Amino acid sequence: MKSRTKWKYTFVTGLCITLVSEIYWNLFYNGLRVSLSVALFPILLLTLDLDLSTLWIGFTSGIMIFLFRGIYAWIGQDTLVHALRTVLPGGLYYIFYSLLFYLAVRNKHTVKFSRLIISVLCCDFISNWMESLLRSGVFPSQSHSLELLAVAVVRTTLVGFTFILIERYHSLLTRKEHEQRYQRLFLMTAELKNEIYFMKKNSEEIEQIMGNAYRLYESLSDRQIEPQVRDCALAIARDVHEIKKDYLGIIMGLEREINNEYPETEMKFSDLLTILKEFTYSQIDAKDLPIFLAFQCQDDFMTQAHYSLMLILKNLVNNAIEAIEFGQKKGHIKITENKAGTDYLINVCDDGPGISEKNLPRVFQHGFSTKFDQSTGNIYRGVGLSGVKSVVEERFHGTISVESRPYVKTEFRIQIPASSLEEEV
User: Fold this and answer.
1) Same domain, 272 and 257
2) Nearest CA to 307 among 155, 192, 153?
3) C-beta atoms surrounding 286 within 10 Å
4) Backbone angles phi, psi at 169, to 5 degrees
5) Least packed by Cβ within 10 Å: which of 9, 133, 170, 365?
6) 272 plus 401 within the same structural domain
7) Which helix (H) or strand (E) holds 24?
8) Residue 422: left (phi > 0), alpha (psi -120 to 50), or beta?
9) Alpha carbon distance 189, 349 (integer Å)
10) CB neighbourhood size of 195 (10 A)
């Protein structure tokens, strides 16, 4: 941290201590104050910036309190010399405290909680004892020392509880951050799994193209065709074979990285819905859309097909959000799940503008789309729903259908055999 910034933080800390020190109680004689600023002092030392000098903060706070109280007393009809002499012990208190704290806690980065609490208690009591001595000119009596110790215990308890609350808060933030990272990793993995699934399907088509090219070469070899034409067909087959090898290498590399980064093999359907709900709300908040979600899991189950299920649901929910966004801007999306006999039924429903009757039979066709980018005029190619249908039917041996009544209900119904989903919990 730059020197100028350090001084700014040191001044701000001293100012906070000075202002809070004016909230006090006169519990004892000789003008000795009991203030919560003493409890605030170690909290600021260990939370504002650990690289700030304890001694400089203590000296700055002591001098600022000395000047502030002295000027205030002087304005209140007291003589300047008497005013400064009266408030001097209060300013010296924080200098004593910071010196003792510096000696007791040499490394604020690594100090243990037990040592910190003992140090705070000792610094508070000894500094109060020294202030009382300076004010009265005599050593505090045993009863007064016990009173000072009781005050130190109370303030140290407040410090301890505050640090516990701060630690709990940091733990919650860390846990939340880990959950968000986990969700992002899961969603990214699901997307990659989806790409790998379709890449494998494409590799089968590549295999067919290669076979067709080689059969064309053999057919041309049996006929009186110019050699360069036959060689061209053979070259096509050879090039397609090389492309397939590179394609499969990419697939294997992606699968290896995914399995290393995210080795989890199964998940409860309810947990999957929780991830989807939080991710979807983050999208809705980013677009500032008044869209409300309702997810209902009636018959929970454990499954190893959580990636594919996430892709299906995420695609359908995103389509619903886009439909509402380009329509009335406000709406509801509901996902329900239940088991009927040997099948699981999953419904995704929204009250957006829906799908027109003429487009309804074509929504699952590859390349079909009614959406386009208004800024560029480019049409979205509509591979999402065709991909969803492919996964439902080929991966899960299930069925998917859609019913739509504009601005009333658009509902996608998915029916998947339990044997394709369930794993023993």
Assistant:
1) no
2) 192
3) 8
4) -65, -45
5) 170
6) yes
7) strand 24-25
8) beta
9) 26
10) 14
Contacts of 355 (CB under 8 A, 6+ apart): 363, 370, 402, 404, 406, 410
Task: Name the residue with higher pLDDT: 23 or 107.
Answer: 107
Average pLDDT over residues 44-52: 79
Residues 234 and 120 occupy one common structural domain: no
The residue with tokens 């990272």 is: 181
On whether both 286 and 407 belong to a single domain, the answer is yes
Pairing of strands 34-35, 24-25: antiparallel
Under 8 Å between Cβ of 312 and 279: no
Q: Are residues 323 and 397 in the same domain?
A: yes
186-214: per-residue pLDDT in tens? 777 777 776 776 677 677 777 777 777 77
**Closest among 131, 231, 116 to 162, alpha carbons compared:** 116
Q: Using CA atoms, how far apart are residues 89 and 32, in angstroms rounded to an integer? A: 9
The count of residues in the chain is: 425
- Count how many domains the chain has: 3
Q: What is the CATH number of the domain that holds 373?
A: 3.30.565.10
Rounded CA gap, 16 and 187, in Å?
45
Do 332 and 415 reside in the same domain of the chain?
yes
Q: What token pair was written down for 198? A: 């379709």
d(C-alpha 272, C-alpha 309), whole Å = 8
Q: Does the pLDDT value for residue 311 go beyond 80?
A: yes
Q: Same domain, yes or no, for 20 and 127?
A: yes
What digits encode the pLDDT tens for the residues 129-173? 888 888 777 888 888 888 888 888 988 999 899 889 888 877 777
What are 294's two structure tokens? 């309702």
Question: Residue 284 belongs to what H/E stretch?
Answer: helix 269-287
- The domain of 213 spans 181-261
In this prediction, residue 365 carries a pLDDT of: 81
Nearest alpha carbon to residue 395 among 201, 252, 123: 201
- In-domain check, residue 127: yes
User: Ramachandran region of residue 406, left (φ > 0), alpha (ψ -120 to 50) or beta?
Assistant: beta
List Cβ<8 Å contacts ≥24 apart for 329-332: 329/289, 329/290, 330/289, 330/290, 330/291, 331/290, 331/291, 331/292, 332/291, 332/292, 332/293, 332/294
Residue 376 or residue 401, greater confidence: 401
* Phi (first) and psi of residue 411, to 5 degrees: -125, 125
Confidence category of residue 298, pLDDT binned at 50, 70, 90: very high
